Amino acid sequence: MLEALRSSEDVLVLNPKPQFVIKTKLAEDTVNPKRVKGTKVFLNICSDDQVPLPEVGYDPRVIYPMIMDNKWEIPIVTSQERVDKDKKGQLAFVYDCIVNTKAIRWIQMDKELKDILVEWSLESVELRSKILLSRDDIALPKLTSKGEVQELEVLRSDLDINRLNKEFERVSNLQTEPQSILEARRINEDEIDEARDQIDIFNVQSKPIDKSNESSTKPLIQEITNMSIRSPPKPKSPVERPQLKYSTTMHKIDTNGYKLKIEIKSQNDSSLDYELNLDTETNTIILKNLNPKFTTKKDLELPLPLIFTNPEIKSFFVHEDSTLVLFIK
Question: Which of 54, 71, 226, 255 falls between 20 and 30 A from 293, CA-CA?
Answer without folding.
Answer: 226
